[in-house]
Amino acid sequence: MKKVKRFGVSLEEDLLGKLDGLAKKHKFPNRSQTIRFLIRNTLVEDALQHNKEVAGCLVLIFDHHKRELVNKSLDIQHSFSNLILSTQHVHLDHHNCLEMIALKGKANQLNELADRLVSLKGIKHGKLTMTAA
Ligand code: NI
Q1: Structural domain spans, the chain
Q2: Which is the CATH superfamily of the domain at 53-132?
Q3: Residue 99 Cα, ligand 1 centroid: separation in angstroms?
Q4: What residues pack around ion ligand 1 (CB closer than 5 A)?
């Protein structure tokens, strides 16, 4: 287990109120956990901005009947196969498919792959979430 260090923090009253507001909103049990979240959030943002290695998940919803779309999507996925860890396909209903693509690589490459897939005709919605350890 990592050693935990304590330190004092001086904050203006209104800013401390905002910290407590964030804790409440995100259901953090205390200020320490809130500050951990904020630090890690900033580190992830920094990793994204500086095109560092990150992990991501691209979620796509598309029309099952557009077979051409599936072929195009697979072609694109094969050309970015170095980034793709796994793909899960779920048949949501008679018309719609959900695909979850787990990714690892440089942030810019993940964005490029996501843009290529989300812009395909027949994709109803797509969203890339990126994070870093
Ligand atoms: Ni399907």
Answers
A1: 13-49, 53-132
A2: ACT-like. Chain A, domain 2 (3.30.70.1150)
A3: 8
A4: 64, 91, 97
Alpha-helical segments (H) within the chain: 13-25, 31-49, 67-79, 107-118
Q: How far is the CA of 63 from the centre of ligand 1 (A)?
A: 8
Quote the pLDDT of residue 112: 97
For ligand 1, the distance from its centroid to the CA atom of residue 15, given in whole angstroms, is 48
Q: Say if residue 133's pLDDT is above 90.
A: no
What is the average per-residue pLDDT within 4-31? 96
Q: How far apart are the first and last CA of the chain?
A: 17
Cα distance between residue 80 and residue 112, in whole Å? 10
Per residue in 64-98, pLDDT (tens digit) is 888 899 999 999 999 999 999 999 999 999 999 99
What separation in angstroms does the CA of 37 have from each of 15, 31, 53, 58, 68? 16, 10, 20, 23, 43
pTM for this predicted structure: 0.86
Tell me what the pLDDT averaged over the chain comes to.
Answer: 95
- Grouping H, G, I as helix, E, B as strand and the rest as coil, residue 88 is strand
